């Protein structure tokens, strides 16, 4: 009888465990098997400190015994193991950036962090080596322009998107489960597999949403969380579009000011705004076909993130002389972003209102990245899996926020708003400079993050780092 009871119990446990190796929130942590990384980064030499592994997790965390997939993970061992603090997990941005590549390159971290932590990251759901979909547009459908010009364009955009997603979906098991809340569960499974009682985390750009929502769901499992280039997930669609346009306009204003005072600017001693307006007028007349006015503003969005002001000045000068704008790739994991952020835009009338709102706050650059985000997600199933909301975080150690005053992508207003939501559970440090990404800007920004991650030392309220 005893043997039969044990056998029944073991059988039940086997059923509960799901597929072999699957990570479960209530089961034993999965053991990561570290080995050589696939040789898919030809410009990155092999490094004996870097190893890769696969973490098996459920496709749908609400069905832990259902289908699973493997998360690509990479680890870089601490250079000074005798002074090692623990594991530090890096949350990549995008959404669509590869954390595995960040770890293999190793150029995203200071010397102290390379010495003191085993650095770990992963390719999130639907990104690179982790069940990335193969998305090929339907050749029978025309890709609508940005911005849309009428109801027919709006309807065509919805049809184009839905046809594209229909072709993506069969190629990835996680296409409909790539929201950040699901990635939060993946991150906790990774923490457990790494053997860490509490998580040390550094999120960049869109990766800050992962850090915010992890701290919200698992406050007792947080050791330290850095949010660099802060994403604000509390905004409705109109506020999102307006703030994205306003922050790009702010960075463009800074570029104009630099040109006015610097002989290094190819447009020095010229009316930069007038030159820029002529370039947009050329685009509006179709002189750069197939490039559009949005492609012109995308050039600014890409180069102001550096910021690479001298290069932008040369390109604007050349466009004014008739050269077409260079192609700018703004990659985005649709499966992740559209599941986190509802594009509740009913028709072209609603859409045109968003365009007017953007132009009102950004008269030079017109659009900002928000309008592209809206168009990419038109027609996504509603409700989304991870709808926007104000944060409710109660961690023992406050989260550290770091943002540039003039960031063209994750604007300073977003960081201020997230800091307000966090209250005493967050601490914002302002970099009084430019560009997207602030950690390695100078000794001050680097020291703020390193002291927090290594020693859990918080900077003083209202702390600032100088530009440069």
From TrEMBL:
Pfam families the UniProt entry points to: Abhydrolase_4
Signal peptide segment: 1-25
Peptidase S33 tripeptidyl aminopeptidase-like C-terminal domain residues: 374-465
Record key words, sorted: Hydrolase, Signal
PANTHER family per record: 2-SUCCINYL-6-HYDROXY-2,4-CYCLOHEXADIENE-1-CARBOXYLATE SYNTHASE (PTHR43248), TRIPEPTIDYL AMINOPEPTIDASE (PTHR43248:SF29)
Family under the similarity heading: Belongs to the peptidase S33 family.
Protein name according to UniProt: Pimeloyl-ACP methyl ester carboxylesterase
Naturally occurring in which organism (per UniProt): Micromonospora echinospora
């Amino acid at each position: 009888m005893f043997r039969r009871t044990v056998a029944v119990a073991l059988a039940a446990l086997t059923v509960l465990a799901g597929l072999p190796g699957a990570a479960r929130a209530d089961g034993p942590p999965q053991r990561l098997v570290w080995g050589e990384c696939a040789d898919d980064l030809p410009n990155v030499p092999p490094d004996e400190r870097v190893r890769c592994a696969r973490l098996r997790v459920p496709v749908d965390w609400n069905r832990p015994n259902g289908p699973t997939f493997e998360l690509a993970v990479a680890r870089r061992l601490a250079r000074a193991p005798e002074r090692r603090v623990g594991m530090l997990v890096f949350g990549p941005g995008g959404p669509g950036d590869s954390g595995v590549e960040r770890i293999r390159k190793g150029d995203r971290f200071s010397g102290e962090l390379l010495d003191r932590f085993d650095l770990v990251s992963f390719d999130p759901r639907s990104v690179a080596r982790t069940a990335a979909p193969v998305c090929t547009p339907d050749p029978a459908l025309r890709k609508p322009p940005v911005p849309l010009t009428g109801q027919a364009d709006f309807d065509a955009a919805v049809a184009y998107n839905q046809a594209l997603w229909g072709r993506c979906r069969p190629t990835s098991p996680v296409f409909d489960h790539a929201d950040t809340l699901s990635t939060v569960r993946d991150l906790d499974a990774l923490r457990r597999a790494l053997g860490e009682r509490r998580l040390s985390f550094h999120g960049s750009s869109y990766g800050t949403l992962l850090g915010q929502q992890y701290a919200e769901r698992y406050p007792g499992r947080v050791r330290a969380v850095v949010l660099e280039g802060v994403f604000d997930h509390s905004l409705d669609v109109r506020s999102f579009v307006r703030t994205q346009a306003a922050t790009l306009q702010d960075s463009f204003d800074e570029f104009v000011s630099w040109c006015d005072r610097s002989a290094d600017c190819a447009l020095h001693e010229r009316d930069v705004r007038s030159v820029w307006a002529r370039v947009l007028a050329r685009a509006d007349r179709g002189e750069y076909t197939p490039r559009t006015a949005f492609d012109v503003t995308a050039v600014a969005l890409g180069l102001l993130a550096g910021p690479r002001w001298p290069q932008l000045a040369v390109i604007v000068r050349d466009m004014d002389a008739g050269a077409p704008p260079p192609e700018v790739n703004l990659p985005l994991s649709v499966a992740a972003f559209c599941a986190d952020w509802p594009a509740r835009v009913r028709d072209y009338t609603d859409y045109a209102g968003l365009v007017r709102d953007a132009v009102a706050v950004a008269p030079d650059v017109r659009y900002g990245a928000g309008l592209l985000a809206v168009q990419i997600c038109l027609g996504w199933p509603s409700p989304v899996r991870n709808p926007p909301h104000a944060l409710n975080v109660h961690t023992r150690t406050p989260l550290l926020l770091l943002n540039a005053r003039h960031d063209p992508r994750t604007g300073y207003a977003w960081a201020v708003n997230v800091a307000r939501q966090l209250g005493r559970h967050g601490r914002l440090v302002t970099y009084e400079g430019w560009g997207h990404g602030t950690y390695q800007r100078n000794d001050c920004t680097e020291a703020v993050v390193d002291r927090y991650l290594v020693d859990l030392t918080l900077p003083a309220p209202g702390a600032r780092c100088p530009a440069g």
